């Protein structure tokens, strides 16, 4: 496999696929475009959960058992904050704080999120090009039966319990793709564009909501291949299945393919799901990514599907 | 001892005396006016070292062996920050960060340092009235043989090594005493005003530099009694002696008394220092505060001297 591979990704599930790509390919030939719709300001600090999950995963610092955050994390900050009456509903680990404090300081100085993210990746020896979808703020909000909730209030504060009626991306209309995003999608040497098995509504749609990115995907020479986030009629983790039902969708790979629409040229479907005609190229494999070998295997299958389309 | 006791204080040495007062008196009858000239913005966070030292000391959280910071502190934030290329010359512990993050967030919202400090003290069960000298920024700078240095760059970054020619308090002329400061000094029921054995030039002078505080001390009915920071012709710790010499002073209690000038009504002098006429009331005792008993004893001696003057 030569040429560049671009991958659109959200949080934990997406990071697994990107880790597979990092193992499989020359990392410098991979560009990850990361959802920043989950970003929010907490305690005055700019938190970028999906970027951080990817940085932790690719640098070997992620807490695999917990599913988020840093391995060997300590919580003295949060304990002290609690003793001072500070908000403790969002878990900020001691080591994790370094990313938020440094990012916030540099953003306040006028530096861009993409420049800061690139520096962080470089500091941790990550050769993959990690790009936020945009340097402008795009904030995912959910219209629910409890009113409109910012993403983290819904996801962490309310553990995805409210019934969602609509997902909105505040600021998206004014946002621009971060430097390098459309360039990577459209580059002549880009041979595959993957959509990671992240939540289509909460992790991938915010990326599509940034004006220009969807058009770039439609114009790209490279095939766009999604790894289905559905496994045997359910989501592997997180609120994907519940959210799809609440938004009136069935929980099938077809529904995800239909949701992505005309940007999609192919889909890697889990072997547990029905072999129906998606109207695009598709291959059935075991898409569960439990081990590192699984991650490499799924990445390889997605790239093989893209190569077949090309 | 009835009535209110007011104490002007800086960092570690001053906090020892205030702790003695907390043991000796009804804490609600004590007002501590704290130097904020050491405050600075680090990594985008507002750090108030002397306020924090006092809060840690009075709530039993201070690290006695280390002489600063929290007992049982961890350093995962700083390790992670270092791995990202962040500035690590100023030690920010994981638990310690809670004060800085919460304070910074609340200051950014427009709350005052005095209101925030009062909340912190209340959260930690401190009944002493802990007041910053001012809610406005006053920044101690030192004109040295290496140029003008902000306080923490001189104190922590350069470990007090540069030769000091002058001490300056930027912003002091525009600052106002924090709410409660002059009121406590001038209150009818205030029976003693103590100046803790903090660095006269770096911890007490910034308080005097806030317009109105010195005048209030001159107008106060209560006697103003300093605990000499000199013990046997040297300072107990820190750069006091070196700084006094660099500024052309001798290192004696007389020199400190002369430096404070007409605000002073009495001085508690260490028994190791010469019994000379200070021109004000004075008593010689052992002023070293190694144990908690020492702190109580020195506080008691200072109050007795004040009572004798009154």
Describe the overall structure:
The structure is a homodimer of 310-residue chains. With 310 residues, chain A is α/β, with parallel strands linked by helices. The mean pLDDT of chain A is 95. In chain A, strands 5-2-1-9-10-13-14 form a 7-stranded parallel beta sheet, sandwiched between helices. Chain A has a 3-stranded antiparallel beta sheet with strand order 7-6-8. In chain A, 38% of the residues lie in helices and 20% in strands. Chain A is globular, with a radius of gyration of 18 Å. The first copy, chain A, has one domain (4-309): CofD-like domains (Rossmann fold), CATH 3.40.50. The first copy, chain A, starts with a strand and ends with a helix. Chain A has helices at residues 12-24, 49-58, 76-83, 96-108, 113-123, 151-157, 181-186, 200-209, 213-219, 240-246, 253-260, 292-309, and strands at 4-9, 30-34, 40-42, 45-47, 129-132, 139-144, 147-150, 164-170, 190-195, 224-227, 230-231, 234-235, 266-270, 281-285. The A-B interface holds A 43-45, 70, 73-74, 76-81, 83-86, 93-99, 101-102, 104-105, 108, 119-120, 123-124 and B 43-45, 70, 73-74, 76-81, 83-86, 93-99, 101-102, 104-105, 108, 119-120, 123-124.
């Amino acid at each position: 496999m030569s040429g560049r591979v671009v991958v659109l990704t959200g949080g934990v599930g997406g990071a697994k696929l990107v880790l597979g790509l990092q193992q499989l390919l020359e990392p410098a030939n991979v560009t990850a475009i990361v959802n920043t719709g989950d970003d929010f300001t907490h305690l005055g600090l700019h938190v970028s959960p999906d970027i951080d999950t990817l940085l932790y995963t690719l640098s070997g610092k992620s807490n695999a058992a917990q599913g988020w955050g840093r391995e060997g994390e300590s919580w003295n900050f949060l304990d002290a904050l609690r003793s001072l009456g500070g908000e403790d509903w969002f878990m900020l680990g001691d080591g994790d704080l370094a990313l938020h404090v440094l990012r916030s300081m540099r953003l306040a100085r006028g530096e861009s999120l993409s420049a800061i993210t690139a520096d962080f990746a470089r500091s941790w020896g990550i050769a993959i090009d990690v790009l936020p979808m945009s340097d402008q703020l795009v904030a995912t909000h959910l219209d629910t039966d409890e009113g409109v909730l910012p993403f983290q209030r819904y996801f962490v504060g309310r553990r995805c319990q409210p019934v969602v009626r609509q997902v909105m991306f505040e600021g998206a209309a004014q946002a621009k793709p971060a430097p390098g995003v459309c360039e990577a999608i459209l580059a002549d040497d880009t041979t595959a564009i993957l959509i990671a098995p992240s939540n289509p509504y909460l992790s991938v749609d915010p990326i599509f909501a940034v004006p220009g990115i969807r058009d770039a995907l439609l114009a790209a020479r490279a095939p766009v291949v999604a790894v289905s986030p559905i496994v045997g009629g359910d989501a592997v983790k997180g609120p994907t299945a519940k959210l799809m039902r609440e938004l009136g969708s069935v929980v099938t790979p077809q529904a995800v393919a239909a949701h992505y629409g005309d940007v999609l040229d192919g889909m890697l479907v889990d072997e547990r799901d029905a072999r129906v005609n998606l109207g695009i190229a598709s291959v059935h494999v075991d898409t569960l990514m439990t081990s590192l070998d699984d991650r490499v295997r799924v990445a390889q299958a997605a790239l093989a599907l893209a190569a077949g389309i090309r």
